[in-house]
Every structure is written in C-alpha cells, then in structure tokens.
Design brief:
The complex is a heterodimer of chains A (283) and B (603). Chain A is an all-alpha fold and 283 residues long. Chain A has ten helices and no strands. Chain A has one domain: MetI-like fold. In chain A, helix 1 packs across helix 10 and helix 8 runs parallel beside helix 9. The radius of gyration of chain A is 22 Å and the shape is elongated. Chain B has 603 residues and is of the alpha/beta class. In chain B, helix 9 crosses helix 21 and helix 16 crosses helix 17. The chains are: A mainly alpha (283), B alpha/beta (603). Chains A and B meet through helix 7 and helix 8 of A and helix 14 and helix 15 of B. Chain A: Keywords: Cell membrane, Membrane, Peptide transport, Protein transport, Transmembrane, Transmembrane helix, Transport. Chain A: It is a multi-pass membrane protein. Chain A: Pfam families: BPD_transp_1.
Amino acid sequence: MATTTARRSRFYNLEFIIGASLTAIICFGVLFSEVLFPGGATKVDLAARLTAPFTNWTHPFGTDPLGRDVLARVLAGGKVSLLVGVVSVIGAVLLGVVLGLVAGYYRGFWDMLLMRFADIQLALPFILLAMTFVAIVGPSLTNTIILLIVSEWVKYARLVRGQVLTLREREFVLSARAIGVTNWRIIFQHLLPNLLGPVIVLMTLNVANNILLESSLTFLGLGIDPSTPSWGGMLADGRTYLQTAWWVSVFPGLAILLTVLGLNLLGDWLRDSLDPSGRSSRP
Amino acid sequence: MTTQTPLLSVEDLTVAFGENRVVENLSFTVEAGQTVAVVGESGSGKSMTSLSIMRLTDNLGAHFKSGKIMFEGRDLAQATQKEMRSIRGNEIAMIFQEPMTSLNPVFTVGDQISEAILLHENVSRAVAEDKVRQLLEMVRLPDAANLMKRYPHQLSGGMRQRAMIAMALACRPKLLIADEPTTALDVTIQAQILTIMRDLQRELGMGMIFITHDMGVVAEMADHVVVMWKGRKVEEGPVREIFANPQHPYTRTLLSAVPRLGSMKGERLPKRRPLTVLEDGQPKVVGEERVQDTVRTDEPLLSVEDMLVRFDIRKNFFGKVTHRLSAVSKVSFDVYPGETLALVGESGSGKSTIGRTIQQLQRAQSGVIRVRGKSFADMSSAELFKMRQEVQYIFQDPFASLDPRKTVGFSIAEPIHTHGLIGDRKQVTKRVHELLERVGLPSAVASRYPHEFSGGQRQRICIARALASNPKLIIADEALSALDVSIQAQIINLFMDLQADLGLSYLFISHDLAVVEQMSHRVAVLYLGQIMEMGSRQQIFEQTSHPYTKRLLSAVPIADPAFDRAEIRIEGEIPNPVRRVGDEPAILGHDEISPGHFVARGA
C-alpha cells in the first residue's frame, strides 16, 4: 500500500507543475496578446500571404491567406475561445450541480419533472436548438454562452443526481440526519464535497467540447461575429488550405489541445488534492 | 497418521508487498481429515495465508520472500499459474465470507456449480447436472432439482453459502480452505452450516483450513489451532491445549477478551469486567470490576407502545400495493434512565427498524413513542428537533458513518453546531478535545480524517460524536459487531463507564448474545417483528421460556472445546417477512410468567 501512495504523489506533483505551467503560459499569451503583437491579429499583409512557419521570424508560425500573422491570431483568438469555453462550463456546472443535488436528494415530483425535462433536452438535436434559439434572440457572444449553458447543464445534472442517489443512502448521510443536521447543510456540507471528483473531470473535458461547439456555431453563422478571431473559427477557416498551408489550422488546433491538456492535468490534481484519503476516485 | 507426509505443509513462508511483510516465517501442516483453524484479528495475515496457498496473491502484487508450500509432493510457491489452475477448485477449493458476491448474479446456481465440474472433469452436461443435484442434496438443500434453475438473489444467505460449499466440493477437493465462511450469517444459520461442514469433512476425509476470528467457531470446528498476530505465528497446538493452557501472552489476552455465553450465571446485574491487555509483551489486567447498578426506575425515559412499521414492497401494474413487509408488528417496551435494554434477533427481526423509528429516520404506521411521558405525536417540530439531540444513534460500521471528506473534529462538532449548544468557537474546540479524551483518544487527532484511524478508534470517534450533544439515550445498532474481540471488549467497558458516569440509557441492538448477556439490564428477543420474550437479563438467560429464545441460545458457538455439545439439529430457514396484502401475520399476545418476564403466547 505504501508504494502506491508514493507513486501517486510523485505523479501528483508532476501533474500540478505541468498543468499549472501550461495553463499559465496560455493565459499569459492570450491576455497580453495586444501588448505582444499590437494590432498584429488584424493587420493584412498580402505580400507575405501564406508564409510557411519557421522561415520568416517576423511571422514565426507563418501567415494565413490574407497575410495575417498566425501566432498573433492564435493568441488573440484565445480570448473568445477561453471566455466561451470556461464561462459556459462554469455556468453549466452551477446550474446542473445545484439542480442535480436538489433533485437527487428530495426525489419525488420535482425530481421526476426535472429529469423528464433533461430527457427532452437530450433528445433535441443541438443544431436545431441553436437555430431556434438564435432565430429568437439573435447571434452574439453572450447568447452563445447562454446557449452552451442551456445545452450542457443536463450532463452535470444527470451525473450529480446519480451520485446523490448512492450517497444519500450512505450511513454518514443517515447519521447526519439522525443528529438533526438540516437538509440544506447535508446537501452542501456532506454531499457536495463527496461528488466533486467526477464533476471536475467532466468539467475539464467539457471545456474543449464547448470551444469546438462555439466554432461550429460561428461556422453556421449562429455564433459570434466571424471576423473576430477564435480558435474554432480559425480551424474552420484553415480547413480549405489544409493540403497547401497546414499551419493555418494546425496552430489553433494545438492551442486547443494544450489548453485542454493543461486543464485536465490541473483538474486531476485538484480532484486528488480534495480527497483527504489520497485514493483517487476515477469515474 | 503422523508418520505419513501431511497433505499440506507450509514451511517458513514469508509473503510481502514490496518491503511490507504481511506474513512472516509461517510454518504449519494440515493432515488429511484434519481441521486447522487459523485465528487472528484483522491485519494478522490470516487471509493472506489462505490466498497464498491458492497463489491468488500474485494478482494482488505480492511475492514470496522465502518458504515452501508443499502439497502432495509439489511446491505450490514455485508452481506456474497454469499448473495452479488445474489445482484450484479441483484439488484445493475455497469458500469466501460473502456468498452473494462470490456467486455470479446472472447465472443460475446449477450452471455455476456444473461449470466447475465441466472444467475439471471430462463429462457430459447431463452427467454434470446429475452430480450437481447430488451435491446440493449433500449440503442439505431441499428440492435440489428446482433450486438448480434459480438465481443467487432468489436464495437466502444461508442457502447461498450452502450452494458455495456445494460448488467448492464439486470436484471432491483434498483440501478445503474456508475464509470466515459464517461471519455474515445469523447464528442459527451459522450453526447449520458448521454442522454440514463438519459432517462433510468426515464423509469425504478432506483436510480443512478454517480461517476465522470467532473463538467460539474455533472451539466447535478445529482439531488444531494456529494463532497469528501481526503476520507471525505466535502459538500453535491442539485445540484443547490452546484453550486450556495458552502459552503466548497474545493468545491469553485474546482468549480473555472473548465474551462467553453463560459466564454471568447467577448475576442479577450486568458487570464491567477488567481487561487483559498486552503491555510490553506481557498480559496485564487493567480496570476495575464493577456491578452496573445504574437503573433508576421512577419514570421511563422512553416508552414505546404498539409500534407498527410496514414497508410496501411490490406494487401491481396499477400502482396498488400487493406485498408488504411487516418489519415491526405491535411492539411495546420501556427504557428507564440508566438502563440498557438489548434488542436481540436475527436478520429481518425488525430490531434495526425499531431503532430507526425512535430516531425519526423512519415513520411508524401506528403506535405511540413517548420520551419522558410526552408522545412524539404531541410534540412541536422544535421539540422533535430537540429529540435528535437527546437521542443519538451509533451505526454498525463506524467508517461508513463518518463523512470521509470531513475531519474527525468537524464530525464531532457537528451535533454541537446543529443544536447551537455552544456559541463560542474556542469553547467548541475545547469540548471536542474533551470528548476525544473521554473516549480514550488524544485530542490532537481532531484534525485527522477517518481513513487515518483503525476500526476501534473510529468507533470511539462515533461514540464521542454521539456524546457531543449530551444525549439521554443512545441507540447502538450493532455497534460492536464490526470490531475485533479485543477492541470489542474495550468498547463494551467504555459504554459501561459512560453509563455509570453520565447516567445514559442504551437501546442496544445486537445479534451477539454473549455481549448482550454481559452488558444489558433487560433483554427483548425479537422474531419477525414481534417480541417473543422480554425480561431481565437473568430471566432471559437463566429461565429461558420461549422456544425461539432457546433455539437462539443453543445455536451460539461456545468458546470452549471441552463443552459438551448436545447434538441439537437446528433446521429451517428464517422465514421471509414479505407477505401478500390481506395476509398479515397474526399478532401474538403476551403472558407475564413472573414479574417483568413476558413471553409470547402460542404459535
């Protein structure tokens, strides 16, 4: 037993170091993109169009078909992508976790209503939902985030409800009830900390998913203004040049990959450090 | 017998996980037809020993540092897994503790037993099925042909364990390893299983290794005993020698901690007994002997009248209830201040349901529960909330009843915060420290988490938590059954000390009659949700009147190999308490045969 703990803690630190540095580097680049490349994301230089990466050091990652610098655009595009990815996930978690907790703990009528609603939501195709929603409220950054929250909260609600159903029968919940602890405190003091592990894992995976969903919405004209750079949008733009100029789409793709990797490692670390027994509870 | 080579001989065996040795320099032998009991408390390495013989330790990542396991001229420690596969189940078979988890729920019992036969013997399906029928009859399962087509969940615990034994015996093994085979079963069922195992061993002449922590079972089953402690063998010898004249200090403390049924004969009141503990490798007697004269019989603290609890089990297509479980049928009793009332009975007797209903974890269909004369029905919600302060509940499994993500200090302080007993933060911390010291733990452990404690320490923490709200009544639901005997003896004394100091009443729910005899003032025997017999400790144990109580008492294994066991054959299953609506069980009346001694009439 002692050996497994030791092995885990070695990985555990490595997870934190790699995850935290990846996330920090990306956040730094994205936040200070204006300072690092003033106006670089939108400056058109048709003379230098489709420069290959690593050939010209004014454009280290090359340029796109309009001669805009890919590195500058990746950093600038991160603003929209990270904003959409992170905010929509946080929103979906807040909504889904609270509803899942309440439904699972109290059971009964509201639980049934909520879960049937969740079933209907899952049965609706995402694009159909998006088109209807945008037709009513119009496309914008805020609306994209709201749409993603509305379509993603169900996953958390279902996950949390399932966890609550098993946890609420456990003896420590029963013993808290026997002492007279209020339902509200049981839910937030005892149930919530015990089901955070799987929620954190789902969250980190969901960020990538939402970044890509934003790009499909933008691609269909249902998301944000297409001239604003975003990772998903750049991926879609570069698709036509994939055979001749791979760098246009590969670098934003790499940015998504590294962000997700960083967040995943951080999430794993967070989940393990929240568990006092040191046993990781992989879902 | 002794001149020929033994069936199995373990020589100088050391098993280790990395550098951590779980079994060290262990040697013992098993002859054909002999039962060797390997005894020890949790963490003594007894289960590792059995898994090593089967070479199942390989999957767990253990390796052998030294030693041989000689079985029929072969060294199993050196055998390949392929060779082991032909030995496992065929020549050495094993029975585990939990019969439900050892049977595959999606195959019928017949399929699972015939699988073992088809695997090891070259016979046709029809022949195999015929053999299965014989095996099931051999373990005295009635209606074998029909039973083969049933799934594990349709069988009771005792029937499942018998099916497991049938499976283990399918290939007529030369050696049977039984790892705590009766620990999860009720006493009457345990008695049946032990008889069957003893008879079969005699019939088939196989060697048997019986792993257990229950000294009573050892006394009933074993010819030879190996006592293990911290991975080492501390003592070995014929069973009568070990019990009559234990040599090693550990064996002596272990035996002195075992509660013995009948040891309180002639005593009117329960008695706190001194403990024998190991100190610097020597047994030492600590603590005083004290008669537990704590009952004040002026006004009952708790009074339960005609409690009735039924659960709806099955509904038909239209949502109408068709089957109900009568968990508690018209049960009445009182508990006085400073008194311990024990509720004893087998699984399904409703003893836990009674406790849970008093703790307001469950609703009763009818009946009156009064605390100090005031009925629950007449109480305001604030008064009912206060009941959760005055009545506390201790669960069987201390690990499960503590939130794994909260420090022990938080858990103990929770009742104080919930009921607003102490406002000041510093005072709460001080009280938590006091409580920890009261139950015999250092106050510094308050900042630790439940997984950092041993089972006995966790139960102490649960007791500290229960004491935090200054309760008048503590409901202890099998609070001792998950603990090792030496720890159990300490916790019994802790319960009794707290009663003497604080005047607590206990509703002590247990299936362990020896413990009940030692610590309770009065006893109620429950069977299928009704009280069969209720009276003072002495009335129940010395003037036993109801046949069910007699049957229960005779099934308890006595931790004394010299005890002359009358061969009472206990037959029959515990009946299913689920009944069709309209077919409710008859409610039995009670006769008071002597003052305070009630016995159920008829049936």
